[in-house]
Amino acid sequence: MPALRAVQAETSANGAEQAAYLQDLFGPRLTAFMVGVGDPSEVDRWARGETRPDPGVERRLADAFDVAHRLRRVESAQAVRAWFVGMNPDLDDRAPADVIASEPDLVLNAATIFLATG
């Protein structure tokens, strides 16, 4: 995932800050779904720094944060939310929220295309 790692280098947010950012943007339920956890209250505990996700979830959290942060620098929060849950032709008509955990580089590429073409 070299493309996402390059984006991560642009930000200095730690795991708690990433969880809080995603929770504020998407809510705990969608954030939990995107990173593959069943309990949305876990997201809140991460955001408050009470617990840390396991390393695999932490990586997925960072990947979702990176794409969302990149989009949010240019688009409104509402547009970013809509992009994440909408069907995306660059992802074979799957929603980025459905794909981010398993194929983060594809979602980053789709986000890059979206930013370039509007």
Structure description:
The protein has 118 residues and is an all-alpha fold. It has one domain. 69% of the residues lie in helices and 0% in strands. The two termini are 24 Å apart. Mean pLDDT is 91; it is low at 1-10.
Quick structural overview:
With 118 residues, the chain is mostly helical. Helix content is 69%, strand content 0%.
Supply database-style keywords.
mainly alpha, 118 residues, 7 helices, disordered N terminus
Round the mean pLDDT to the nearest integer and report it. 91
- Extended strand count: 0
State the shape: globular
Order of helices and strands: HHHHHHH
Number of separate domains: 1
Low-confidence stretches: 1-10
Q: Per DSSP, what share of the residues sits in E-state strands of 2 or more residues?
A: under 5%
Provide a count of the helices.
7
